[in-house]
Amino acid sequence: MVKEREKILFIVNPKSGVGAIRNLEAKIKKTLDNKRFIAIIEHTQRARHATEIAQEYLKKGIKKIVAMGGDGTVNEVASALLHTDATFGVIPIGSGNGFARHLRIPFIIENAIKLINLDKIALIDVGMVNQQPFFCTAGVGFDAQVGDSFAKGKGRGFANYIKTTIHVFLNYKAKRYKITVNNQVVNKAAFLITIANAAQYGNNAFIAPNADITDGMLDVTIISPFPKYISASLGLKLFRKRIGKSRFVETFKVKEISIVQFDSNVMHYDGEPVTIESPLNFSIKPLALKVYVP
Question: By C-alpha distance, which of 96, 97, 188 is closest to 141?
Answer without folding.
Answer: 188
